[in-house]
C-alpha cells in the first residue's frame, strides 16, 4: 500500500477511533481501575486503594449472589418464553393466506418500540387497582377478587412480571428471526419427504428443526445478551424490588452508584458483570468466526 | 384429489383465523394505551377498567402539548437523536470505508473490537461515563448525551456499513481515482451515494437507539437535556394523577415509531437480519 493511501486510511478511521477510545476504551480501563478503590460518589476527595477487597466482599455477599441468580432466572424465563412464542408465531406466519403480509407487518410493528413504553403499558396492565389482566382473570372466574394478584409488589411475582413486559417487547424480533430461517428452507425438501411418506410431525422433526437450528441458536444468543443487559424495564416496573426480589445485575449496579454512591463496589460488580456477559458472548463471536471460516 | 384440496383450504382458513387472533391479542396492550390516551382525563384508568373508550376526548393531548416542559423534552429528544445519528453515520461510514478498502491488519482488529463493544453491558460503562461527564462539568448537556450516543452507535454502524461497501466493486473507486478524483472525493461523490439504502438502514437503527435510550439519559441529564423516556419514567415513579397526559405523551413518543416500522418494515428487517442472521 502506498504511504499516501495509508495516511488517508488512518485519517478516515481516526474520528471513530477517538470516539470509541473516549467513551468505550477509557471508561472500561477506568472501570477496572476504580474497582480496586473505595470511593464515595458524594465526596470527590475520597478514594483509597483497597486491592481486591471489593471483589472479596461481593463474593461473600449473599445479596450479590442472589442478584446473579435473579439475572439468570430473568434471562432464562424471558428468552425461553420469547423463543417458544416467537417460534409459534413464525410457524403460523410461514403458512401464507390472503392478507398474510398485512398481518405479519402489523405483528412486527412494535419491533422498535422503546422499553420504557413497554414498562409503562405493563405497569397499568398488571396494576392491582385498575389493571386489565387481573380484571380479565376475575371475569373468567380464575380469581375471586379483582385485586387479589399483586403482580408488581409480591416478591414471588415481581421478576416474572418484569419478564412479561420484556417478552411482550421482544417476541416480534424472535418471530422475525425464526421466520427468516423457516423461509430459507427449500420447499423441495418437504415435497420429497412427503413423497417418501413422512407425516407432518416427522417432517417438522427431521427437516424444520435441524435446518432452523443455526438461526435459532443465533437468535437465542443475541436475545440472551440483550436481556442480560436490559435495565429499562425492570427499573421502571419495580426498581428491583420489593426486597431485592427482582434485582438484576444492571439495576444493582445503578443502585450501588446512584443510591449508595459506592463507586468502588459498583465498578467491581460491573467488572464481574462484563466478564460474565463476555464469556456468554464469546460463544457468539466464536460461532460467527467459525461460519466465516467455512 | 378434490377432497384433499378442500381439507387443505379448511386448515389454511383455521390457521389464518388463529394468526389474526394472536396478532390482535398481541397488539392489545398497545391498543389499550392508545384507547386510554383518547379517554377523558378523569376516566383514563378506572375500576373496573374498560378497554374501549366510552367517550372520545383529545383533552390528554391538549394537556400534554400545552405543558412547556413536555415540549422541551420532545425538542431535546429530536435534536439529540437527529444530530447524533447524522454525526455517527458520517464517522462510521468513513471508518467502514477505510476498513473495507485499505485492508490494513490493524483495521481488522479494530472491527473485532467494535464487535466486542457491542456485547459489553451498557450499565457497566455507564458508571465511568457518568464520572467522566461529571468531572468535565458536562452533566445535563445535550452535547454530552449526544456524544455518548455517537460512540455507542459506532460499532453497529461500522459493522453494517462494511458489508455495504464490500458489495460495491473496487473497480469503481479505481476508475474514479484514474479520472482524477482523490480518495475523499471518490468516497463522497461516487461510493457513498451508491450506499444510500445502506445509509438509510443504519440511520434508522442509530436514530432508534438514541430515541429509545433510557439509561444514559437518566444518568446524564436532570432537567435541561432531559429526553422523553426519562420524562415518561418520572410520570411512573412519582405517583401523580396525570395518567392521561402520560398516556398521551407515550403515544406521541411511540406511535410515529410504530407507523414508521409498519411502513418501511422491509428495510428494517433487512437491516436486522443483516446484522444478525448472516452473522
TrEMBL record, chain A:
Name recorded for this polypeptide: Carbohydrate ABC transporter membrane protein 1 (CUT1 family)
Keyword hit for Manganese: no
Example of a GO cellular component annotation carried by this entry: plasma membrane
Stated family: Belongs to the binding-protein-dependent transport system permease family.
UniProt keyword Cell membrane, yes or no: yes
InterPro entries the record matches: MetI-like, MetI-like_sf
Gene Ontology biological process: transmembrane transport
Transmembrane stretches, start-end: 9-29, 74-93, 105-125, 157-182, 203-222, 268-289
ABC transmembrane type-1 domain: residues covered: 68-284
Location in the cell: Cell membrane
Annotated Pfam families: BPD_transp_1
Membrane topology qualifier: Multi-pass membrane protein
Alphabetical UniProt keywords: Cell membrane, Membrane, Transmembrane, Transmembrane helix, Transport
From TrEMBL, chain B:
Keywords (A to Z) from UniProt: Cell membrane, Membrane, Transmembrane, Transmembrane helix, Transport
PROSITE patterns, A to Z: ABC_TM1
Cross-referenced Gene3D superfamilies: MetI-like (1.10.3720.10)
Chain segments annotated as transmembrane: 12-35, 78-97, 109-131, 143-165, 186-211, 243-264
Membrane topology: Multi-pass membrane protein
GO cellular component: plasma membrane
Pfam families in the cross-refs: BPD_transp_1
Protein name stated in the entry: Carbohydrate ABC transporter membrane protein 2 (CUT1 family)
Originating species: Halanaerobium saccharolyticum
Organism ancestry: Bacteria, Bacillati, Bacillota, Clostridia, Halanaerobiales
